[in-house]
Design brief:
With 229 residues, this protein is mainly alpha-helical. The protein contains 12 helices and no strands.
Length: 229
């Protein structure tokens, strides 16, 4: 109809528009009624054709809001990009998910974690969907600044030169939760941690997101960096 407005249409064209059926499906999660996890999984089930979306791409559609906006703003932080070893933002938003991992364990008690990690991160996105706090941004930025000063670029690319997310989340959260640590202390404690055989086992396990492995990892790093539990 050439971009014309409804009032510009002929009577016949108006009748076509008036009689057109727009089908829609309303989805409501019945139980439990305090969350909307089903929206994520329905979206994921439908996501089978063409390029399969990543979990974070789906979260951007399902849990859009101030919290997501904050994560995406922080992803542009210069020191954060040095830490993860990326000069450009990931087009599939995997780097945004890594920031989500940080906040998932900074804002909540790791003892409450239960795998799978994907479901846990979904619950964090929903819980904080409409929250945006400058204090959260500040602690993330300050933590990144401390890490680069103490450990240099790409400090969590261990033990084989690739970014280890199990190291990234446990160490970053530990440093963030103990702001009294000096640059020198962070460097010393992290060097000790890298030489801890038990920690190496925890960060190189087949699936580091398993409940027990993750809890053991955080407990060890919290103890090492003097975080109260």
């Amino acid at each position: 109809m050439g971009g014309r407005k409804y009032d510009d249409l002929s009577d016949d064209d108006k009748s076509i528009v008036d009689d057109y059926v727009i089908r829609s499906i309303i989805i409501r999660q019945i139980k439990p009624d305090n969350e909307h996890a089903s929206m994520f999984y329905i979206f994921e089930r439908l996501n089978t054709g063409g390029v399969v979306l990543t979990s974070m791409e789906i979260r951007r559609a399902v849990f859009a809001g101030p919290f997501l906006k904050m994560l995406e703003e922080l992803n542009k932080n210069y020191n954060w990009q040095k830490i993860i070893g990326k000069k450009q933002e990931d087009k599939r938003f995997r780097d945004v998910e890594w920031i989500l991992r940080f906040f998932a364990f900074y804002l909540t008690d790791f003892k409450k974690y239960k795998d799978p990690l994907k479901t846990y991160l979904n619950s964090i996105m929903e819980q904080f969907q409409y929250q945006y706090k400058d204090d959260w941004k500040k602690i993330f930025i300050e933590t990144c600044d401390k890490i680069v000063k103490a450990l240099g670029e790409k400090p969590f690319h261990i033990p084989r030169g690739r970014l280890n997310l199990a190291v990234l989340d446990s160490v970053m959260v530990s440093i963030a939760k103990n702001p009294t640590l000096s640059i020198e202390e962070i460097a010393k404690l992290y060097n000790e941690l890298k030489n801890d055989e038990h920690y190496i086992d925890l960060i190189t396990a087949r699936d580091t997101s398993k409940t027990k492995l993750l809890k053991d990892r955080f407990q060890l790093t919290f103890l090492k960096f003097g975080v109260q539990m």
